[in-house]
């Protein structure tokens, strides 16, 4: 296949902690199907260390996947950004592009599509949504909920004083946002919940589905299943996990790394998706 900058063959995921990341397995499976000679690793980069890491990269580097705590810290390092990055103030992807004698850093956000596509695959279009947590992934979750049809979103966070960016985003998106302390999560049943909390952090919360179509999207995947996900499923609700999100956001990243357009389908994309899901132990298709 033809792709941009064929001499750039090195990629990696950065974050802290990062040893548990399954992104290398996902990307390796995809590049094997696509027949491209890319190498994808992982590097521990803590808060405050991204600038120095990026500055030290050679011309063999094609791109980076970013996880916490780097999704906001990357913004000042980017030369160009997609409209979604500008809207959210969050990027999880850097692609290095050679333009003349200059190397430009292009930033993208594929977390939103990583959340939207699995829910769409279930045919679930929520009118309301609850989001647990207020970090960078919560901004993507808010945008995803709106794209899925939510007109009202309730956010439950540990510190309500730190939700200014989410409130501003909700205004731009034209969605009604209600903010509550996490301790005030109601015992009522929910139709659609996205938990952006670390693995196990939602285990003591009362999360119950409103019916068999209700979806809990728990972005954790290690350890899995979480107690919250197990209770939700045992009560008849449908559960998506962080590996569903990780796979779909990685597909968006691979599109962006190869062509510069995260919306341009990959060659043999259905086969690529199947191989990626198998690489992390997921069934061939999204089911819940």
Explain what the structure shows.
The protein is an alpha/beta fold and 288 residues long. The protein contains nine helices and twelve strands. The protein has a six-stranded mixed sheet. Strand 8, helix 6 (164-173) and strand 9 form a beta-alpha-beta unit. Helix 5 (136-147) runs parallel beside helix 6. The longest helix has 18 residues, at 242-259. It is globular and about 60 Å long. The two termini are 34 Å apart.
How would you sum up this structure in a few lines?
The chain has 288 residues and is an alpha/beta fold.
Topology:
Layout lengths: L9 E6 L7 H12 L4 E6 L5 H6 L5 E6 L13 E2 L1 H6 L4 E7 L2 E7 L2 H11 L6 E5 L3 H12 L4 E6 L6 H10 L2 E6 L10 E4 L19 E4 L8 H8 L3 E4 H18 L9 H11 L9
Parallel strand pairs: 1-2, 1-3, 4-6, 7-8, 7-10, 8-9, 10-11, 11-12
Antiparallel strand pairs: 3-5, 5-6
Distance between the termini: 34 Å
- Which descriptor suits the 3D outline? globular
> What series of H and E elements makes up the topology?
EHEHEEHEEHEHEHEEEHEHH
Tell me the number of helical segments per DSSP (H or I, 4 or more residues long): 9
User: What ranges have pLDDT less than 50 throughout 5 or more consecutive residues?
Assistant: none
Calculate the mean pLDDT score and round it: 94
Rg, Å, rounded: 19 Å
Share of β-strand residues: 15-25%
Biggest sheet strand line-up: 2-1-3-5-6-4
Number of strands: 12
Structural class: alpha/beta
Q: What is the percent of helical residues?
A: 25-40%
Main pleated-sheet profile:
6 strands, mixed
């Amino acid at each position: 296949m033809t792709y941009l900058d064929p001499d750039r063959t090195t990629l990696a995921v950065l974050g802290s902690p990062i040893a548990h990341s399954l992104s290398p397995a996902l990307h390796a499976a995809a590049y094997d199907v696509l027949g491209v000679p890319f190498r994808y690793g992982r590097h521990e980069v803590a808060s405050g260390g991204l600038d120095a890491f990026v500055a030290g990269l050679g011309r063999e580097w094609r791109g980076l996947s970013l996880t916490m705590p780097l999704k906001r810290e990357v913004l000042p390092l980017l030369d160009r950004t997609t409209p979604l990055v500008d809207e959210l103030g969050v990027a999880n992807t850097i692609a290095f592009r050679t333009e003349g004698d200059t190397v430009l850093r292009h930033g993208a956000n594929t977390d939103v599509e990583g959340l939207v596509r699995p829910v769409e695959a279930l045919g679930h279009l929520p009118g309301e949504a609850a989001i647990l947590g207020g970090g960078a992934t919560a901004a993507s979750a808010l945008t995803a909920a709106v794209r899925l049809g939510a007109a009202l979103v309730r956010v439950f966070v540990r510190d309500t004083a730190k939700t200014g960016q989410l409130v501003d985003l909700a205004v731009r998106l034209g969605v009604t946002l209600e903010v509550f302390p996490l301790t005030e999560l109601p015992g009522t049943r929910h139709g659609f919940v996205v938990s952006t909390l670390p693995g196990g952090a939602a285990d003591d919360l009362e999360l119950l589905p409103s019916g068999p179509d209700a979806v809990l999207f728990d972005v954790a995947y290690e350890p899995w299943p979480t107690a919250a996900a197990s209770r939700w499923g045992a009560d008849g609700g449908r559960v998506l996990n962080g590996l569903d999100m990780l796979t779909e956001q990685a597909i968006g990243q691979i599109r962006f790394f190869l062509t510069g357009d995260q919306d341009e389908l990959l060659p043999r994309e259905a086969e690529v998706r199947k191989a990626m899901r198998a690489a992390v132990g997921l069934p061939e298709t999204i089911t819940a």
